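Reference record:
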Amino acid sequence: MNSDNFPFEIEGKDGKARAGVFHTPHGSFQTPIFAPVGTQATVKSLTPVQVEEAGATLILANTYHLFLRPGDDLIAEMGGLHRFMDWQKPILTDSGGFQVFSLDGMRKIDEDGVTFKSYIDGSVHRFTPEISIAVQENLGADIIMAFDECANPKDYEYNIRSMDRTHRWLQRCIDAKTNDKQALFGIVQGGIFPDLRTKSAEFVSSFDLPGFAIGGLSVGETKEEMNAVLDIVPEILPENKPRYLMGVGSPEDLINGILRGVDIFDCVLPTRLARHGSAMSFTGRINLNNQQYARDPRPIVEGCDCYTCRHFSRGYIRHLLISKEMLSGTLISIHNIHTLEELVRQSRRAILSGTFGRYAEDFLTAYGSN
């Protein structure tokens, strides 16, 4: 596979942290970057315009869910994800592996692939590396992921078998891919074990792919264990390709990932927290359900220039939450996504100015002080 179709330019470095630009058929995006998750071809409770105005330039859609409903063939018939959901910037799709392997008691793994039951109606389906690639080609995302197995991160013996199978599946994904307008990323696995992560990173790096992902983290291990993996893997991956940490999106994890050379992040966290009344800030989370905010005239965060903070008070948003009005989730989601987008923008500026080390230290010191 020729990765020259998807150039990645590193514009600056500060320690291991990098600021770059990745080019796709639907435009370029700057890194570090956070991608909101649009599981069902929608970022929950937001219109595409609202997602864009919150600062997002890349979103993720879920292969497993869209395969089951409405079906990748239907989305292809409707012109692909970009037209289907009216998002004209880059889209990334996962392979479906994480969702399939999280279905305890509802799936069976073999060398060829995975047989699983639908969470919707119990119907039986099968994913193989070839099927995962075919589904993602139908969806039409700019960045697609190799089919991998996301195993229990602390089971050493199983991680050996799982990692080796993931490696064999990567070759099959490469062989199955037919669309040169999609960038296929390989995925590093190996749980929390340094020797397995090293072996996996070296194997996946041996392929000339447009980018590389670090999977199997934020799935039950401690933050210290995750950061220990990130101390190892990015340095093994090619310097001139983007590095994507899958499923990670808390502010402190973004900073710790950028410090260790990660370029791309995604997570459902900002919209999931919003639906429960929790707002993000650079000093921690704010639970807007609390009675103390009932008469609070301030915005969620003083000085934040997101749409929500420019127009509404904490007191109003708490009223919406207590009244179970849908607008509460929308307004907090706008703020939370804006917060993470602003965090990666500030990180990028600090990298380019050579001050990211200090910026990260100050951020991590202040975070949790709210």
Observations:
- The two ends are 48 Å apart (CA to CA).
- The domain at 3-274 is CATH 3.20.20.105 (TIM Barrel).
- The first helix runs from residue 48 to 53.
